[in-house]
Specification:
Layout: E1 5-7, H1 11-20, H2 22-30, E2 35-46, E3 53-59, H3 68-71, E4 78-87, H4 88-91, H5 95-105, H6 120-129, H7 131-136, H8 142-145, H9 164-170, E5 183-188, H10 195-200, E6 207-214, H11 217-237
Parallel strand pairs: 1-2
Antiparallel strand pairs: 2-3, 4-6, 5-6
Helix pairs in contact: 9-11
């Protein structure tokens, strides 16, 4: 190992982590060239591809590596909290109807496509403009971009680096939830731990919020697959070896 491993967890959670052998992946990451200080595992650690899910590592810009397994198959996967002005008392009487309507309107499940059909040019604009495309097409407003990391777009997106197969897999997946551990929840603010932070986010006790966990689905998965193949070919040609592919 080039650096130590550091795991943030509890004794109870550590039992499950050991059963999944995710700690082996923490060790494998610690062997990668150019890694800095620690191979880190966050509390949600579980078995992934090369990297554990919940694994974090920083690499030297010159001596380090780019790892598709570190980025993950579900590129840009994350969790978003959407607040509402509704209270628990207002929503609880209609909760069952609300959940039924969400299931009706939000496509979810493996292979499930959505109502938004995109051309390749649409996808090119999404790659280049990020949330700007959504705002321009009526799926948000300009204030939303102020509340998203990097204002909802990351400069340098290159549509020409995406394969035709990735476009085909992703063309009907915008606005869908997918499967696995992705979810859409109706939540209630039960306790305020830091009033100052809560106030800055517009959160109050008893408030109903929506929590969404999703990613890039088949589109991101195919991009990862494509570039893993490129890197494996490079490794074979240059006789490079790693503890875990």
């Amino acid at each position: 190992m080039r650096v130590p491993g550091r795991v943030y967890t509890t004794e109870k959670m550590l039992e499950a982590i050991r059963e999944e052998k995710a700690l082996e992946q923490v060790m494998n990451v610690a062997y990668l060239p150019g890694i800095q200080k620690y191979s880190i595992a966050m509390p949600d650690i579980h078995w992934g591809y090369g990297f554990p899910i919940g694994g974090v590592a920083a690499f030297d810009a010159e001596e380090g590596v780019i790892s598709p397994g570190g980025v993950g198959y579900d590129i840009n996967c994350g969790v978003r909290l959407m607040r509402t002005n509704l209270t628990e008392g207002e929503v609880k009487p209609v909760l069952r109807d609300l959940v039924t309507e969400i299931f009706r309107r939000v496509p979810c499940g493996l292979g499930e496509g959505g109502r938004i059909k995109l051309t390749q040019e649409d996808y090119n604009r999404i790659i280049s403009k990020g949330i700007g495309w959504a705002i321009e097409n009526g799926y948000g407003d300009r204030e939303d971009a102020q509340r998203v990391e990097d204002y909802g777009t990351f400069p340098g997106g290159d549509p020409t680096a995406v394969s035709e197969r990735a476009y085909q897999r992703g063309k009907d997946e915008i606005g869908t939830l997918g499967s696995g551990n992705h979810f859409l929840e109706i939540d209630v603010v039960n306790e305020i731990m830091n009033p100052g932070v809560a106030n800055s986010f517009g959160l109050f006790k008893g408030q109903v919020c929506v929590l969404i966990h999703c990613g890039s689905r088949g589109f991101g998965h195919q991009i990862c697959t494509d570039y893993i193949d490129v890197m494996l070919s490079y490794m074979r040609k240059n006789n490079l070896e790693l503890p875990d592919r």
